[in-house]
Write a structure and sequence with these properties.
By secondary structure, the chain is α+β, with helices and mostly antiparallel strands. The protein contains nine helices and eight strands. The chain folds into two domains: 2-67, Arc Repressor Mutant, subunit A (Orthogonal Bundle); 72-243, GAF domain (Beta-Lactamase, 2-Layer Sandwich). The strands form two sheets. Strands 5-4-3-8-7-6 form a six-stranded antiparallel β-sheet. A two-stranded antiparallel sheet has the order 1-2. It is globular and about 55 Å long. InterPro entries: GAF-like_dom_sf (IPR029016), HTH_MetabolicPath_Reg (IPR050707), Tscrpt_reg_IclR_C (IPR014757), Tscrpt_reg_IclR_N (IPR005471), WH-like_DNA-bd_sf (IPR036388), WH_DNA-bd_sf (IPR036390). May be an activator protein for the gylABX operon. This is Glycerol operon regulatory protein. Residues 64-246 form the IclR-ED domain.
């Protein structure tokens, strides 16, 4: 059991942190002896849970974790339903398309497809962000019960950039606007120079369970083009919802 706990501790270091880490850093962050960490990392590499970064001594998360994540039932179905729509959206928008789900007070990206541009977003799959900092988080939060929205807005809101909305009154108005137009937007709020829009995805019962977003650099995804991208996400979200059995 101790070995399992230690292995889990090593994996958790990658959660919302650097995507590539060496043995020394992992050992320091988990307070494990370097030889113990090295042995566990080698075992997880053999099992596909981790992989070596080519040309370095660093590790990153392996594809086996992604395969296992795909079996999680609470978002496995939506990923399967969304995949062809996301691919289509990435081709038509020519920008990065992401499917995200809520996990507590955060949003986690579970699927991503990129357009053809050489300059594109990094791989955001697995990244967690506060709901109020990104377009897909706002799209998820805006359609929650009023009491749940107020619970989150009662806490200090996370700031990532100078553009991140941290005032509860402004965020309340922002979420009302999301409900009015059907999609959310974030302009440099999670990363300077990154613009994005997102629309909510509903399941067969009508509950919002995911969000689909389009994002890209501000010189391509310009402010005046956000409504066009917003409409594309709304259309894509409706197609995914239809595949999940929603008929509203």
């Amino acid at each position: 059991m101790q070995s399992v706990r230690r292995a889990v501790a090593l994996l958790k270091v990658f959660d919302n942190g650097p995507t590539e880490l060496g043995v020394s850093e992992l050992s320091r962050k988990t307070r494990l002896h370097k030889s113990t960490a090295s042995r566990l990392l080698a075992t997880m590499e053999r099992e596909g849970l981790l992989e070596r970064v080519p040309g370095t001594e660093k590790y990153r998360l392996g594809f086996m974790l992604l395969r296992l994540a795909g079996q999680v039932t609470h978002f496995g179905d939506v990923r399967t339903a969304a995949r062809p729509i996301l691919i289509e959206l990435a081709e038509s928008s020519r920008e990065t398309v992401i499917l995200a789900v809520r996990d507590g007070d955060e949003v986690i990206n579970v699927e991503q497809f990129s357009g053809p541009h050489l300059v594109r977003d990094a791989n955001w799959v697995g990244r967690r962000t506060a709901l109020t900092c990104v377009a897909n988080g706002k799209a998820l939060l805006a359609f929650q019960p009023a009491a749940e929205i107020e619970r989150i807005l009662a806490r200090p809101l996370v700031r990532i950039t100078d553009r991140t909305i941290t005032d509860a009154v402004r965020m309340r108005a922002e979420l009302a606007l999301v409900r009015e137009r059907g999609y959310a937007q974030a302009v440099g709020e999670v990363e300077e120079g990154l613009h994005g829009v997102a629309a909510p995805v509903r399941d067969a019962t009508g509950a919002v369970i995911a969000a689909v977003s389009i994002s890209g650099p501000s010189y391509r995804v310009t402010f005046d083009r956000l409504p066009d991208y917003g409409r594309l996400t709304v259309q894509a979200a409706a197609k995914i919802a239809n595949r999940l059995g929603f008929s509203g």
